[in-house]
Specification:
954 residues, mainly alpha
């Protein structure tokens, strides 16, 4: 079983063999084998005794135990029994000297080897032991081997020292294994015995990588990779006991992999043993090996390991000493032992599995008591609340004064860090530890906030359950305002109005909370403001206000004023310092993104969303992440990335929808309806219209999105009058609430399109002109859409410049779907006028619509729908014409051709630069050279000269 161990220790074993030969020639020897715990001393000890027995020596073995360290002559009694075992009749009876005499004594002995008594004179016992050993060694060599001599009782050590002093003329070898005695200093007699001038000392070091390799080879049918062997060596620290555990872990993992794969062919033999190249994962076998190692070190080592496991990252020498009751010097010695096997990472146990195994074998009462002491020590030493609270969780309710503040502070920090499940556990225990109703209500408010972050869809009851407590004055301040906002989120407007009316006073301490709630209502639920018994006074947000308040203020300003520069600056301020962002600041990000989106700063909103979405993956805050995903869907919709819009909105809706409607799930639903409608998937859009929306929805900003999206669906499916009703209702509410911005919902354009379908061009024109007559608030996308609508109310000859200007604006702000729709109508205008630009414009519109995955728009632009004279113009009506166009592209350099191809596919210069990872200036330079080489003057002529076999192939 331990052949690899023997090869690793072969040199030492050969030297020990030489000493046995020397002793057999009449010259006694002493040898000690030392080393740390479980390093292989006993294995070498057994190998030596087996060799000595094979050589004909009488081997007298003693195994010392810490339990018998203080029992006089306990080890010597083992020695005497070993001597009796060598008698012709076997071991002598245990009835004393007389009984032994009747049965006979070992051959050649004149003295009966009986265990001494405690009262016997030590010198007499030592002399008698010497005489017995001398008589035995006169017949054949004798080896007295004592394992773990550091645990041998002092009385036996005195006898062994007496023998060692008289070895010179005896064929006697004394071999001792000596471990590290950490718990208590060894008796002086042991030092005298071990460190005699004639003694030979052998120290066993942990296994080298080569030794681990040999051990692995003896245990597995085939060697794993060198990397895996080095990993076993690293994790075990070269300790054979731990290495055995790791090898067994590897064997089980490899066997499981082999069982899941086809059996190897017979000629593959052992080489078919699977080799894992990743890091070896440790499991229960290795963890039990660690526990076995700790138990060999003794009870203090176990106690220290338990304290290390409980304190974890908070472990310091002072805390460990106080918690374990082990003095600092002894602690250092144990720490060196733990560190020697790689069990420590600084001052903590390296592996979570080991920590769990150490704690798992402790009795429950012991764990509870130790956790309480750890929590109190950490608290008294000023440790962070979370470090203290993690121990309180394992204890249960405590009614000591210091416990509740610690749990609440730990919960607040966990909410800040995004560790929501842990925060919820802290708050649940805090509720049990609350001594009075005021404390319990405050904790329940914090708990409702945590539940909203963890599972927003199902958190409504947590808010509603605190309404009466607020109205009775038992829950006040910022906590009460947050409960009101939670009710608003879940469309519980009657209850929210009661609470807000109750809280609406001039208390300076809650002025910031009042202003924040007002900003929320203006931007999220503007229809509820009219229901308040008295209005919320407008105040100014201080420069030092929380990012959530600044984001709400920015959103409210944009809804009222359009692309207000101050509002945009406020939103940008919220985004600053996005790295290491606590969860509390995540709350402002969706609203800041919405502010940019409603300001038609779609590119900026998209850039910030991508950065924040990558960062949000590190946060476990489903509520904020779902809201961010919902806004990301709106951004994707307005960028023309319809598939992304659907995917993000579906993700958000799945997280936000529940038994009750809420403002965020309604927004996700509206985006799904509008995106599916734009894609031409009207069945999918209709499926999201099946649930009946509650009337309260139409008091919210999300309700405006819902009305507009439903109107677009009705319009696309031929229900023009229903569409008209939705657009008109949307406009009525937006005007009433003073948030009549087309960037929110361009209801006038929707209504105008409906009137056009009904043949009412003049009514449509008045709506569009009304939209264009409104003050220019910097809404580029909205103006481009309005110009598009205006063109459709004009005669064909007047449409061209208006449509081209609309396309320029929409292309410039990244609204690709709307830009594709403008190109589609421009191509139709060209077609009606018989203009040769109809086909390339349609082709460009088709490619742009295809990139948006707007299938309905693509179908309306298929080449087969164009007259033959237009279609033939670009292609020459033959393969030769196509080939000629391609040959013209072949005259360009590779870089120029890539830019030209993308340009003919409808991409703007900025998008070409992003795709090719070059600057916009470089794109412009390439296009200049392309125009010159192809003999064209602009992009439109380039489109006409491009190959046109079909839109898809191009």
């Amino acid at each position: 079983m331990f052949q690899a161990v023997l090869r690793e220790r072969s040199k030492i074993l050969e030297q020990l063999d030489d000493l046995l030969i020397q002793s057999s020639r009449g010259s006694g020897v002493i040898a000690t084998i030392s080393g740390s715990t479980a390093v292989g001393k006993t294995t070498l000890f057994h190998a030596l005794t087996e060799r000595a027995t094979s050589a004909g020596a009488m081997v007298l073995s003693v195994v010392s135990s810490p339990d018998e360290r203080h029992v006089p002559y306990s080890a010597l009694a083992q020695l005497m029994h070993s001597i009796n075992a060598h008698s012709p009749g076997g071991e002598a009876p245990h009835g004393g000297a007389a009984s032994t005499a009747r049965r006979g004594r070992p051959t050649g002995l004149t003295i009966v080897p009986t265990p001494p008594q405690t009262a016997d004179d030590p010198l007499t016992v030592a002399r008698q032991t010497h005489r017995i050993v001398a008589q035995l060694s006169a017949r054949r060599p004798v080896l007295i081997a004592v394992d773990d001599i550091q645990h041998t009782d002092p009385e036996t050590l005195s006898c062994l020292r007496y023998l060692a002093q008289r070895l010179s003329q005896l064929p006697l070898a004394l071999v001792f294994t000596h471990g590290i005695s950490v718990d208590e200093p060894p008796p002086p007699v042991l030092h005298d015995l071990l460190y005699r001038t004639s003694a030979r000392h052998f120290h066993l070091e942990p296994f080298s990588p080569l030794g681990i390799r040999e051990l692995v080879a003896s245990r597995l049918p085939a060697l794993p990779s060198n990397r895996m062997i080095l990993e076993i060596h690293r994790l075990s620290g070269g300790n054979p006991l731990l290495a055995e555990g790791l090898i067994e872990e590897y064997r089980q993992q490899a066997a499981a992999e082999a069982a899941a794969e086809p059996a190897p062919a017979e000629d593959e033999g052992l080489d078919a043993w699977p080799v894992r190249e990743e890091e070896l994962s440790t499991g229960p076998v290795f963890h039990q090996a660690i526990l076995a190692y700790l138990h060999r070190l003794g009870p203090r080592a176990i106690r220290l390991a338990q304290c290390l496991a409980l304190l974890d990252e908070e472990a310091t020498p002072v805390l460990l000493s106080r918690l374990s009751g082990i003095d600092t010097e002894l602690l250092k010695r144990y720490t060196r032992l733990f560190d020697g096997i790689g069990a420590l990472d600084g001052s903590r146990l390296r592996q979570a599995g080991v920590r769990q195994a150490v704690i798992g074998e402790m009795p429950h009462d012991r764990v509870t008591h130790l956790r309480y002491r750890a929590a109190r020590l950490l608290y008294d030493n000023g440790a962070p609340p979370q470090s203290v609270a993690v121990h309180l969780i394992g204890i249960g309710p405590l009614y000591e004064e210091w416990v509740l503040p610690v749990l609440r502070a730990a919960a607040a920090q966990s909410l800040e860090d995004g560790a929501l499940p842990q925060a919820i556990r802290y708050l649940e225990l805090a509720r049990e530890c609350s001594a009075d109703e005021t404390q319990r209500l405050s904790v329940k408010s914090q708990y409702a906030y945590g539940q909203w972050q963890l599972n927003p869809a199902d958190s409504a009851l947590h808010f509603l359950g605190l309404k009466d407590s607020i109205l009775e004055g038992k829950l006040t301040g910022d906590e009460a305002w947050w409960i009101a906002e939670g009710m608003l989120f879940h469309l519980s407007f009657d209850e929210a109005v009661d609470v807000v009316d109750h809280l609406n006073d001039s208390d300076e301490e809650t002025a910031t909370a009042l202003h924040s709630t007002r900003m929320l209502m203006v931007s999220e639920v503007p229809g509820v403001l009219d229901r308040l018994s008295r209005p919320l006074l407008a105040t100014t947000a201080p420069a030092t206000s929380h990012s959530e308040l600044r984001a709400r203020h920015a959103l409210a300003l944009v809804l009222e004023r359009g692309a207000d520069e101050y509002a945009i600056a406020l939103a940008d301020q919220v985004f600053q310092g996005t790295s290491d962002r606590p969860t509390s600041k995540l709350s402002g990000l969706p609203k800041a993104l919405l502010a940019l989106c409603y300001a038609d700063r779609i590119d900026a909103a998209d850039k910030w969303y991508e950065l924040l979405a990558a960062d949000a993956g590190n946060s476990d805050a489903p509520g904020w992440r779902a809201q961010g995903e919902c806004v990301g869907a709106l951004i994707a919709l307005r960028r023309g990335r319809l598939a992304d819009a659907v995917r993000r909105a579906e993700t958000a809706y799945a997280r936000l929808s529940g038994p009750k409607w809420n403002v965020s799930s309604a927004l996700a639903l509206a985006i799904l309806i509008e995106a599916h409608t734009a894609r031409g998937d009207h069945a999918a859009a209709a499926s999201y219209l099946v649930p009946e929306p509650p009337p309260a929805l139409f008091l919210t900003r999300a309700g405006l999105h819902y009305l507009y999206a439903r109107g677009r669906h009705h319009l696309a499916t031929g229900n023009t009058y229903l569409a008209l009703t939705d657009f008109q209702e949307c406009g009525l509410l937006m005007r009433r609430w003073n948030i009549d911005t087309p960037a929110l919902a361009p209801w006038r354009l929707g209504e105008a399109e409906a009137w056009l379908r009904l043949g009412e061009k003049e009514r449509a024109a008045r709506l569009v002109e009304e939209q264009l007559a409104r003050p220019d608030t910097g809404l580029t996308r909205s103006r481009g859409m309005a110009l598009h609508a205006l063109a459709l109310t004009q005669a064909t000859a007047k449409q061209l410049p208006v449509l081209r200007e609309a396309f320029r604006l929409l292309e410039g702000c990244g609204a690709r779907y709307e830009a594709a729709a403008v190109l589609a109508d421009l191509s139709r205008a060209y077609q009606r006028l018989g203009d040769k630009r109809a086909r390339p414009t349609a082709r460009r519109a088709w490619r742009l619509a295809k990139a948006c995955q707007a299938e309905s728009l693509c179908q309306s632009l298929l080449p087969t729908s164009a007259p033959q004279k237009v279609a033939a113009r670009g292609s020459g009506g033959s393969r030769e014409g196509d080939r000629a166009g391609q040959d013209g592209f072949d005259g360009l350099s590779e870089s120029e051709r890539r830019v030209a191809v993308l340009a003919t596919q409808g991409y703007a210069n900025r998008e070409i630069a992003e795709k090719l990872f070059i600057t916009v200036s470089t794109v412009e330079q390439h296009l200049t050279r392309v125009y010159r080489k192809l003999g064209v003057r602009n992009r439109e002529q380039l489109l006409q000269s491009a190959p046109a076999v079909s839109y898809e192939s191009a």
